[in-house]
Amino acid sequence: MLQEFKTFLTKSNALALAVGVIIGAATGKVVSGVVDDLLMPVIGILLPAGDWRDAKLVLRTVVDAKGKVSESAIAYGHLLGTFIDFVLIAFVVFMVTKALLKPAAPPPPTKNCPECLEGIPLEARRCKACGSQQP
């Protein structure tokens, strides 16, 4: 059973998935740090001062018999703040991904064999699939 488990870990995508989750968690901390420590102070200068994230539209206020006040409100300030956080985090993830991942090289140009319609390199003199002579 132990050998079967070892085979599962090494021959399946479980190990790659585990590494991806660990790297994703570490990257998430870096991205959150960049957004919270670098971008949000700058954006805080541009946004209006005050507790705008606490802004809400109160629909109903209820006071119970014990004097406890409860509100039913649309918290549009929190929603707006969450949206701004999402856009910033998505932008930082995009920039980090763009910096780390290089674009794939374009595939070499090919042509189709007139006999079997298999894709072959432009410079080929014979088809790799059917062996026919190429013009």
From TrEMBL:
<dbReference type="InterPro" id="IPR037673">
    <property type="entry name" value="MSC/AndL"/>
</dbReference>
<dbReference type="GO" id="GO:0005886">
    <property type="term" value="C:plasma membrane"/>
</dbReference>
<comment type="similarity">
    <text>Belongs to the MscL family.</text>
</comment>
<keyword id="KW-0813">Transport</keyword>
<comment type="subunit">
    <text>Homopentamer.</text>
</comment>
<feature type="transmembrane region" description="Helical">
    <location>
        <begin position="73"/>
        <end position="96"/>
    </location>
</feature>
<keyword id="KW-0812">Transmembrane</keyword>
<comment type="function">
    <text>Channel that opens in response to stretch forces in the membrane lipid bilayer. May participate in the regulation of osmotic pressure changes within the cell.</text>
</comment>
<keyword id="KW-0406">Ion transport</keyword>
<keyword id="KW-0472">Membrane</keyword>
<protein>
    <recommendedName>
        <fullName>Large-conductance mechanosensitive channel</fullName>
    </recommendedName>
</protein>
<keyword id="KW-0407">Ion channel</keyword>
<dbReference type="InterPro" id="IPR001185">
    <property type="entry name" value="MS_channel"/>
</dbReference>
<dbReference type="Pfam" id="PF01741">
    <property type="entry name" value="MscL"/>
</dbReference>
<dbReference type="InterPro" id="IPR036019">
    <property type="entry name" value="MscL_channel"/>
</dbReference>
<keyword id="KW-1003">Cell membrane</keyword>
<dbReference type="GO" id="GO:0008381">
    <property type="term" value="F:mechanosensitive monoatomic ion channel activity"/>
</dbReference>
<keyword id="KW-1133">Transmembrane helix</keyword>
